[in-house]
Write a structure and sequence with these properties.
The chain contains 15 helices and 16 strands. The protein has helices at residues 48-54, 63-68, 72-77, 81-85, 98-105, 108-112, 147-157, 175-197, 215-226, 243-253, 271-277, 289-295, 327-331, 334-342, 346-373, and strands at residues 5-11, 18-24, 27-31, 33-37, 59-61, 91-93, 124-127, 132-135, 142-145, 161-162, 204-209, 232-235, 263-265, 284-287, 298-299, 306-307. Helix 12 (289-295) packs antiparallel against helix 15 (346-373) and helix 14 crosses helix 15 (346-373).
Length: 376
């Protein structure tokens, strides 16, 4: 089995942007790169053969959801997540800790949209030093996640990159509570790492940098976690209420991370954020943005988003974008896609999703080329 390591190939002289390769047991990830979200072991509306065909190098799967259905013990019996979902290329899994935040407050993306300021429902029952007690959204059963059980679940899944258990407090948390949360998260991440190192089984672990938008706490988190033998670093927690606040936080944090290890921005991957964050030195991004947009009929192009449901597409017998090269554009027209969406055919979502992911994969290739050429 090939070992995990990061290869830095080129640094921009214009910014902190860089081009590299992340080597994993299941293949190479060119950086900077986009990571599609396949929550339940599949990107919505696609099968994993489609992802291979369009060249998606890294896929993000959700441990919490896979614990609830089908159960990570089932995945283990199937030979691990790669065998279970028939994917030959790299996979990253989260810890399940994201649900501490998203089930209670909404997603990180919601915060950037001005949402996520009120506690929702009762999915998170208790947060203690031991871990987090959830109520399953599937059947109401109580589920206890701890640093140790999260890592054991990710061992069952067998992803190439795994994430330590962490708490993600919301933007509006009081400063004292944020500091206490950070300290507990550090203890949880250390316990996660210790559990992981008992049986590494070829997997790499990324620490998660926390601290909200407080520079002092972000620096403290970088100092604590970079002193431990993690393989890479993800930037998590609340990234700010606005994109400006996120940009300021990332500009502060990235120089504090080791240059010889990869980094990842959790939960952010819309096009404006990619454009602003790549020059700061982010290596990989995960987001459901392009696939969710596709299911709502928004097709990504170099000229902006195309709403395929609009009537003016009904008689456009051309591809979504000339010269695109994706399987959708090489075979089907805007008029046909418009018809499928209006008829509510499920195929419409599949074809749109293939196009949007292909668009963003090619966009990341252009970013890498721009860094090498000195324009970024």
């Amino acid at each position: 089995m090939k070992s995990f390591h990061f290869e830095l190939l080129h640094r921009s002289k214009k910014s902190r942007a860089r081009v590299g390769r992340i080597h994993t047991p299941h293949g190479v990830i060119d950086t900077p790169n986009f990571v599609a979200v396949g929550t339940n072991g599949t990107v919505k509306a696609l099968n994993n053969a489609d992802l291979h065909d369009i060249g998606l190098q890294l896929m993000f799967c959700n441990t919490y959801h896979l614990i609830l259905q089908p159960g990570t013990h089932v995945v283990r019996k199937a030979g691990g997540l790669h065998h279970f979902i028939h994917r030959k290329l790299p996979i990253i899994t989260d810890s399940g800790g994201f649900q501490v935040f998203s089930l209670a407050y909404g997603s990180i993306a919601d915060e950037l949209k001005g949402k996520g300021t009120k506690k929702q429902g009762g999915s998170v029952l208790k947060i203690s030093e031991e871990g987090v007690l959830f109520r399953s959204y599937r059947d109401g059963a109580k589920v206890m996640l701890t640093p140790e059980s999260s890592i054991q679940a990710q061992k069952d899944l067998g992803a190439d990159i795994i994430i330590p258990f962490d708490e993600l407090p919301p933007y509006h948390i009081a400063p004292g509570a944020l500091k206490k949360s950070l300290e507990r998260t550090h203890r949880w991440e250390k316990r996660s790492l210790e559990e992981h190192l008992k049986n590494p089984q070829g997997q790499a672990m990324y620490a998660v940098i926390h601290g909200g938008v407080d520079p002092t706490l972000r620096k403290e988190s970088c100092s604590f976690l970079t002193d431990l033998p993690f393989n890479g670093f993800a930037i998590g927690g609340s990234v700010g209420k606005t994109k400006e606040e996120m940009h300021e936080m990332l500009s502060f944090v990235l120089p504090l991370l080791p240059e010889d290890k990869p980094n990842h921005l959790l939960g952010i991957g819309d096009l404006p954020s990619l454009e602003r964050s790549i020059p700061l030195g982010i290596d990989t991004f995960d987001s459901s943005y392009p696939t969710r947009a596709a299911r709502h009929g928004i097709l990504l192009t170099a000229q902006g988003g195309v709403n395929i449901t609009k009537a003016d597409n009904a008689e456009k017998f051309a591809p979504i974008e000339e010269g695109c090269g994706c399987p959708t554009c090489s075979r089907f027209t805007l008029a046909y896609l418009h018809h499928l969406f209006k008829a509510r055919e499920l195929t419409s979502m599949s074809l749109a999703t293939v196009h949007n992911l292909y668009f963003i994969i090619k966009l990341m290739e252009k970013y890498r080329e721009g860094i090498r050429e000195g324009t970024i």
